[in-house]
C-alpha cells in the first residue's frame, strides 16, 4: 500500500511566505479560503524556516523534502500553479537533513492526540511487557503490578 501526502505545504503556510516575525498580511489569493496560520502553525512554520536557512534551501523545498523522506510516504502531491513554484518544488530532491534537523521537524509537527493517546504512550509498554525487553526496547514494571504479588 502506498501513502500520498496531501497538501504537504499546508495550503501555502510552509511555502516560506509566513513567519511569526512577519507583520501584516501575506499577499496570497488563498487566504480568504484557508485563513491565516494559527499560533500552533507558527511553531512549525518558524522551525521549518530555521532549518531551511541552515541548509540553504527554500522553506517549500525543505518541507517537501521532509515529507518525502518519511519512510511511509510513497508519493507527494505537488500543488504548483506556476513554473517558478514547480522549480522550487523540484529543488526538494536535492535537500538532505542531519539527524538533528529531522528530529526538530518531527517534533514540531507531531500531531496532538487526545485521550487516551498520552496514557498509551507512557503506560502501554510497562503494562504490556512488565520489564521485558522487546525488539531491543526495554520496559519497566508498572508500579501497579509491584504493589502485590496478587494481581488485582
Automatic annotation (TrEMBL):
Is Oxidoreductase one of the keywords? yes
Q: Which domain of life is it from?
A: Bacteria
Q: Which residues form the NADP-dependent oxidoreductase domain?
A: 2-109
Keyword vocabulary terms for this entry: Oxidoreductase
Q: In its UniProt entry, what is this protein called?
A: Aldo/keto reductase
**Organism, as annotated:** Streptomyces gibsoniae
Amino acid at each position: 500500500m502506498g501513502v500520498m501526502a496531501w497538501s504537504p505545504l499546508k495550503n501555502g503556510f510552509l511555502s516560506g511566505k509566513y513567519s511569526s516575525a512577519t507583520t501584516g498580511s501575506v499577499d496570497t489569493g488563498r487566504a480568504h479560503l484557508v485563513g491565516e496560520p494559527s499560533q500552533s502553525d507558527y511553531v512549525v512554520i518558524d522551525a521549518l524556516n530555521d532549518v531551511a536557512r541552515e541548509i540553504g534551501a527554500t522553506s517549500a523545498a525543505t518541507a517537501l523534502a521532509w515529507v518525502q523522506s518519511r519512510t511511509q510516504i510513497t508519493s507527494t502531491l505537488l500543488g504548483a500553479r506556476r513554473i517558478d513554484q514547480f522549480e522550487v518544488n523540484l529543488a526538494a530532491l536535492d535537500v538532505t537533513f542531519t539527524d538533528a534537523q529531522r528530529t526538530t521537524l518531527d517534533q514540531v509537527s507531531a500531531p496532538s492526540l487526545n485521550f487516551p493517546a498520552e496514557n498509551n504512550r507512557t503506560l502501554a509498554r510497562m503494562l504490556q511487557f512488565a520489564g521485558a525487553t522487546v525488539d531491543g526496547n526495554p520496559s519497566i514494571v508498572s508500579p501497579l503490578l509491584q504493589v502485590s504479588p496478587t494481581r488485582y
